[in-house]
């Protein structure tokens, strides 16, 4: 009987903590592909300095945005191999749920093999600027993200909301 009572107390405590907004971090997997040419545009001021406007489309698995389709646009500054996000935003949609976000920081590096780039990896932070429906609890919440190229025009991202 004591074991059952303890289990009920623990269960009730977890429900109260979750309801009070103290839930554990949630993560999502984004399976993405590039949309459009996404080619570097040389700026002409010095060698290796360019801008890259990249559009992408993703499907999400996990978290409050499970089953949404995400559209995104990122503007990268490329400077002799260093890549930094200048601006980025996107929106997630499914019937009854919409969430918009803004990336607040991010960088990308190449994955090298035998002295040649074979892929890229990236990471950064962002914030949900709007969230409705099933994702309403994420309005104003910050998140972190990592990404890795999985093919010539495809990549996988992992995001985590605290």
Characterize the structure shown.
There is one protein chain. This protein is mostly beta strands. The protein has one domain: Porin, CATH 2.40.160. It contains one helix and nine strands. It has an eight-stranded antiparallel beta barrel. A hairpin with a 7-residue loop joins strand 3 and strand 4. It is elongated. It starts with a helix and ends with a strand. The N terminus is likely disordered.
Q: Which terms would index this structure?
A:
9 strands, 162 residues, disordered N terminus, eight-stranded antiparallel β-barrel, Porin
How is this fold's topology laid out?
Layout: H1 2-19, E1 26-35, E2 40-42, E3 49-61, E4 69-79, E5 82-94, E6 97-113, E7 116-131, E8 142-151, E9 154-161
Antiparallel strand pairs: 1-3, 1-9, 2-3, 3-4, 4-5, 5-6, 6-7, 7-8, 8-9
Whole-Å distance between the termini? 36 Å
Number of helices: 1
Largest sheet: 8 strands, antiparallel, barrel
Rg, Cα atoms, Å: 20 Å
Oligomeric state of the chains? single chain
State the CATH class.
Mainly Beta
- Strand and helix order: HEEEEEEEEE
CATH topology: Porin
Structural class: mainly beta
Helix proportion: 10-25%
Overall structural domain count: 1
Total DSSP E strands: 9
CATH architecture: Beta Barrel
Query: What is the mean predicted local confidence, pLDDT?
Result: 88
Strand content: over 45%
């Amino acid at each position: 009987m004591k074991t059952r009572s303890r289990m009920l107390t623990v269960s009730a405590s977890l429900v109260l903590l979750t309801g009070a907004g103290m839930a554990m971090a949630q993560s999502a997997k984004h399976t993405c592909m590039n949309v459009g040419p996404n080619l570097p545009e040389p700026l002409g001021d010095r060698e290796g300095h360019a801008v890259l406007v990249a559009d992408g489309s993703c499907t999400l698995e996990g978290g409050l945005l499970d089953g949404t389709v995400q559209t995104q646009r990122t503007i990268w500054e490329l400077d002799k191999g260093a890549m930094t996000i200048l601006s980025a935003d996107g929106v997630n949609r499914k019937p009854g749920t919409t969430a918009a976000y803004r990336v607040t920081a991010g960088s990308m590096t190449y994955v090298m093999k035998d002295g040649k780039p074979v892929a890229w990896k990236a990471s950064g932070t962002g914030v949900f600027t709007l969230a409705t429906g099933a994702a309403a609890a994420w309005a104003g919440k910050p998140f972190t993200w990592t990404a890795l190229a999985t093919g010539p025009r495809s990549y996988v991202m992992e995001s985590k909301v605290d």
